[in-house]
Amino acid sequence: MPADQDDDFRPKVIRPPNRAKDKVTLGGKIKSGGMDPKLLRRAENNAGAMRGEFVKVVDIDIDGLETTCREAETDTANRAKRLEDLQRLAHAVNEIGANAGYDLLSKFGYSLSTFLRLADATDEARVNVARVHVDAIRLVYTQQITGDGGEIGKQLTKGLRDAVSKFLLNP
Amino acid sequence: MSYRLDRLAVLVVDDNRHMLGLISEILRGLGIRDLVMLTDAATAFREIKITAVDVVITDHAMSPISGIEFVTMLRTSDDSPDRFVPVIMVTGYSDLGTVRQARRRGHRIPGQADLGQGAIHAPARSDRERPAVHPEQDLFWSRPAPQVRGP
Description:
The complex is a heterodimer.
Chain A: H1 19-24, H2 37-49, H3 51-74, H4 79-100, H5 103-118, H6 123-142, H7 150-169
Helix pairs in contact in A: 3-4, 3-6, 4-5, 4-6, 5-6, 6-7
Chain B: E1 9-13, H1 17-29, E2 34-38, H2 41-50, E3 55-59, H3 67-76, E4 87-91, H4 96-104, E5 109-112
Parallel strand pairs in B: 1-2, 1-3, 3-4, 4-5
């Protein structure tokens, strides 16, 4: 035991107040029952009713993705900044795509966003990988491929995977 | 008798107005009326000093202050008004590294940004039961193994 340690030291356990729990259980009066299923259904219906709004936004985000990708290709002096912008836009496509019912779009947006955030690759390879993702995202949207896209979705996914492998092996 | 969610005051922070609108509609559906909706973390930190809230819901990928930085401010800042306020993080980054980072900074429940129909029951289940929105096989490249550091 270190010499400077107090023999009488007693740890103090801090139990922070759980205000949220006290409120929703009326100070512990509600012991069971959990969430009201009617409210959960209402919340899900509210979320579902917003799908149309998300479909409109997907279009705007894909346009932004296309423009920023082109800038990353041509504006080599500011490429790092453009790729950063592209990562943020891809992340937005991931989130908005999922909520608009475009699961494949969301999957491709997630892949691009995560690649630009975490992958160890040259800027040249990053731009090339971004381009194949953006083209795939554009295709999914123009063809209005919702959900996972079935057989077309599988083919697109394989095509994208092959293209990315090619660029990462030959940057 | 079911939980009285209508008694909660909730602060929601997300720099994407559409996601903010979606979360707000979901919370209203759950009966919560006392909502503060903001698009940046700095304003949210100022607001929470004025308005007492019971739960904070924050996005992860925000700029200039990220969701992780916002929670660090709430948990450790000398002028934080409530270091123990429960925080739910909503993120499209459902990968292991991000979730671990969020937990280390003091998030109770990392949530997922796909909040469409069928997703709202998810937080009622444990994290282990909940699959990631995008599993690892959705990536088209090999990524480095997540770095695990101590708390």
